[in-house]
Amino acid sequence: MNIDVTAHAKTRDSKSLSLDQIIIDSSESMKARQKTDGHWVFDLEADATIPAEYILLNHYLDEVEDDIEVDLADYIRNTQADHGGWPLFHDGDFDISATVKAYFALKLVGDDINAPHMLKARDAVLAYGGAEKSNIFTRYSLALFGEVPWRAVPVMPVELALAPKWFPITLYRVSYWSRTVIAPLLILAALKPQAKNPRGVDVQELFCIPPEKIKNYLENSTGHWFGSVFLIIDKVLRVIDPHVPNALRKRAINRAVMFITERLNGASGLGAIFPAMANAVMAMEALGFSKDDPNLLIAKKSIKLLLTPGEGKKFCQPCVSPVWDTGLAVQALMETNESIHDTNIMNSCDWLIDRQILDVKGDWAMQRPNLRPGGWAFQYNNDYYPDVDDTAVVGMALHRADSKKYAKSIARAEEWIIGMQSSNGGWGAFDIDNINSYLNYLPFADHGALLDPPTADVSARCISFLAQIGRERDHKSISRGIDYLKTDQEKDGSWFGRWGTNYIYGTWSVLNALNAAGEDMSQSYIRKAVDWLIQHQNTDGGWGEDGATYWKERRYERKESTPSQTAWAVLGLMAAGEVDHTAVKRGVEYITSAPREKDGRWKEPWFTAVGFPRVFYLRYHGYSAIFPLWALARYRNLKASNTKSVRYGM
Questions:
Q1: Is there a contact between 285 and 193 (Cβ–Cβ < 8 Å)?
Q2: Which residues share a beta bridge with 387?
Q3: Which of 320, 339, 375, 513 is in the most buried spot, having the most CB atoms within 10 Å?
């Protein structure tokens, strides 16, 4: 079912509409965005580095796309902040790495370096110590363009591709996203190719010291002795690297190529994430793949598919989120009392069923070789990398829609989620016990996001799913999971949000899980979380956290309330039994009076999610459509109910 969004747009003046009218209007707008096959997919926005890297890749390959790059350059210019550089999220602080890439991309497309926006950016970079202060990933890009010597980046021996399972540093000891990015990067580090750069563009003006004169690019920023040891190892590897036997190097490169091609993932791309896809294309080019090689062609196509379809501003996405969007959207619609037999609901569930991964044992099987697959991935296709968060959300959606019809799929999801539980009782997103913390001290790991340890938000979703489908509080996985959540609670009563910003997201997730599991919601540790949410309500009735809260010294920083974060807080409080609390009433009033876009979404420029805390932030364009609707519908339902209790895991 596809409805013209404008037919339901009206004025979007929420203040003039009743609660029921807003719910109807928003749900109709939601249904209007549903694809004909039943799924939803909203834009997924990161910072300026992804569109900048798209441009850099084109010029690396000498495959310039002027028509596309014009739009991407407009996006980059429009996201420049008042401080002169580019932030990691809306209204965020200056980030030198993002700024260097954005400036480089704009110069590649032809921006005059003396144009006001370029002067402003350059002055900011130099004031912060120059491009030499960029992070490792940015320096790899600079090395590929010949802007810095290869000694500006850590040694990444391609022989790591041959490392046995017991070795302390292997591809399988890091997270899935690191694994898929590193595998092709190992090839690039071994071959050290140079960008074709047809316009001969450089950015030497961004350096405070000429790059070839800088002696020590690498430093132990952590201060930990592990970091010092790894720097020594790096120096040793630099001596050894030129003397590695050619036969061994060739075997290692072949193993890395095998890893990539096995996981190329069709049009969805390696790992279904932009950095891995881009590195794969550059690695294939460096290896001399023919221009018409099927693997190279499909790898390039996968990158093109990340460009936004033109509904709004045009940019390149880091990945796409159709399974996640659909699993959430269908539950929001069901909360509005939309019939589970309605075409919108059934089509979306059937679409989700077709995407359950039942036959491929992905990288997670290195830890659980005897576990049957049964999860869902985040993207259209990513068979090697399903995640338990998506699996739990989809499982809850299917169970709520028709537990009998989808019983087999739900049972396989349950089996897989239980098998993915880590030894401490929590769940990581993609892997089991991915907790080799010493790897975060590698020179390569200056972004601090090399691992995928258990987190409260993901663990809460798994508990919610297991509880919703009927597993009791004393079920071993639920009991262990709740014990983990108790130990992971912050001193102030909140929970950290790994994949959503931030303590509001984590606390909402956990309160949902505890309610679903049948915990006594009057317990002191739960009341402490409830009190935390109430205390952090803004004067306008809403809630909001800034991306800066991922720095401990800034954890209470707020800028403005947002509809999606307010919805999380309201949903969390209602899960704790507080539907009649004035904080919930004020939160609902904030949502109902907040302005909305013509397409039905609430206006929300803020980034309320993360890829990697302190490094990479996300704006799910669907969140401002899904969660406010969900919260309003649940509030209406509970106010009309005699029990005032939330029945579902989310």
A1: yes
A2: 376
A3: 513
What is the set of domains in the chain, with CATH numbers? Answer: 5-43+318-639 (1.50.10.20), 45-304 (1.50.10.20)
Specify the pairing of strand 616-620 against strand 44-45: antiparallel
Contact by Cβ (8 Å): 481, 546: no
What's the mean per-residue pLDDT of the chain? Answer: 94
- Can you give the pTM of this predicted structure? 0.95
Give the mean pLDDT of 359-364: 97
CB 86 within 8 A of CB 47: yes
Confidence at 341, pLDDT banded by 50, 70, 90: confident
**Any idea what DSSP says for residue 543?**
B
**C-alpha dist (Å) from residue 157 to 136, 172, 440:** 16, 15, 17
pLDDT in tens, 571-608: 999 999 999 999 999 999 999 999 999 888 999 999 99
With 60 as the cut, is the pLDDT of residue 7 above it? no
Residues 6+ apart with CB under 8 A from 100: 125, 131, 134, 138, 142, 203, 206
* Dist. CA 40–CA 306, nearest whole Å: 16
The helix or strand, by DSSP H or E, that contains position 616, with its residue range, turns out to be: strand 616-620
- The residue from 234, 363, 389, 546 that is catalytic is 389
| Token pair recorded at residue 88 | 């990691």
Unique residue bearing structure tokens 């990933």 = 137
Position 555 scores a pLDDT of 87
Q: Are 52 and 101 in contact (CB under 8 A)?
A: yes
User: Could you confirm whether 580 is annotated as catalytic?
Assistant: no
Distance CA 241, CA 233 (A): 12
Q: Which amino acid is at 120?
A: K
Q: Which two tokens stand for residue 500?
A: 């959503």
Residue 15 is predicted with a pLDDT of 59
CA torsion 255-261-264-266 (nearest 10°) is -170
* Phi, psi values for residue 341, rounded to 5°: -95, 0
- Residue 242's contacts (CB-CB under 8 Å, 6 or more residues apart) are none
DSSP state of 374: -
The DSSP output letter for 265 is -
Q: Which amino acid is at 513?
A: A
Which of 60-91 are b and which e, b meaning 16 or more Cβ less than 10 Å from the residue's Cβ? bbeeeeeebbebbbebbbebbbebbbbbbbbe
Distance CA 461, CA 588 (A): 24
Q: DSSP string covering 140-197, please?
A: HHHHHTTSS-GGGS----GGGGG--TTSSS-GGGS-HHHHHHHHHHHHHHHH------
Distances (CA, A) of 623 to 567, 591, 629: 10, 13, 10
Residues 334 and 345: beta-carbon distance below 8 Å:
yes
Answer positive or negative: Cα dihedral of 237, 238, 240, 242: positive
Q: How far is CA 470 from CA 79, 178, 396, 478, in A?
A: 47, 36, 11, 11
Q: How far, in Å, CA of 216 to CA of 231, rounded? A: 11
